[in-house]
Amino acid sequence: MRIDLHTHSTASDGTDRPAELMRKAGAAGLDVIALTDHDTTRGHAEAIAATPEGLTLVTGAELSCRVDGVSLHMLAYLFDPEEPALLAERELVRDDRVPRAQGMVAKLNELGVPVTWEQVERIAAGGSVGRPHLASALVELGVVPTVDAAFAGDWLADGGRAYLEKHETDPFEAIRLVKSAGGVTVFAHPAASKRGRTVPESVIVEMAAAGLDGIEVDHMDHDLDARARLRGLAKELGLLVTGSSDYHGSRKTCVLGEYTTDPEVYGEIVRRASGAFPVPGTGGV
User: Fold this and answer.
1) Which side of the chain, N or C, has fewer Cβ within a 10 Å radius?
2) How many CA atoms lie within 13 A of 217 on its CB side?
């Protein structure tokens, strides 16, 4: 089985509509794909309707979190999307995205970059607006050569000249909320230092004690040493180890199925979940 547990669609900052993403996943020979848009489940219905026969969809989201001043992302799988407390927290995070992005546009203007809010809205195309949309605007304007370059330097990275904080969930609260909604939690790309500051391993130890289910080890932003270190930490803490592409369509260079999750780990994620169940494809539309 080929299992990719981290992808994005136009419901957040990917460039493929959910239906197109499902068709591409089937064509890529994947058996299981998770749709994990940022702080939203708005793409799930379209993805379910379009999932082709032979492909199974795992519904999820990537939750924006912050601890001790460091941003991190929590992958949440197979939770009840209508559970009131988790839904309210996701809406709180999403509602803060627009004023934050507008503030970053203003900061870019102060730096002499002629980006407009209308340009960012066009790029977001109704999705949950975020820094990748601003990064794409900088690419369009020729300020940086690639989306990654907008995060690697001092533009949009944490602490960059155009950076603004937004409301982000405490990761321990995120774990509690997802568990209460019947879901499973995996810490996304915990050693992706090129994105900005990362949390120390002591925080991962504390998260494991609070009920974290796993960590995403095999990821394009982790080098071999980071993967080996994280794999050892996961074994020590009894955490599940996942691998995934973090696919964003044309916005990033990663491809579907570039990294995958072991079928036994996927089976354990499904076993632990009670808020939702994987959806087998029925042919799509």
Assistant:
1) C
2) 21
What element of type H or E holds 72? strand 70-77
Distances from the Cα of 86 to the Cα of 63, 240, 255, angstroms: 10, 23, 30
Predicted confidence band of residue 253 (pLDDT cuts 50, 70, 90): confident
How many Cα atoms within 13 Å fall on the side-chain side of residue 38? 27
pLDDT per residue as tens digits for the range 216-236: 999 999 999 999 999 999 999
Secondary structure (DSSP) of 24-63: HHHHTT-SEEEE--BT--TTHHHHHHHPPTT-EEEEEEEE
pLDDT bucket at 284, cuts 50 / 70 / 90: low
Contact 38, 157 (CB under 8 A): no
CA–CA dist 53, 96 (Å, integer): 38
Contacts for 45 with CB less than 8 Å, ≥ 6 apart: none
Reference 17, options 45, 41, 47; nearest CA is: 47
- Give the phi and the psi of residue 57 in degrees, each rounded to 5: -100, 130
What pTM value is reported for the model?
0.86
Q: Which residue has the tokens 């009670």?
A: 274
pLDDT tens readout for residues 93-103: 988 888 999 99
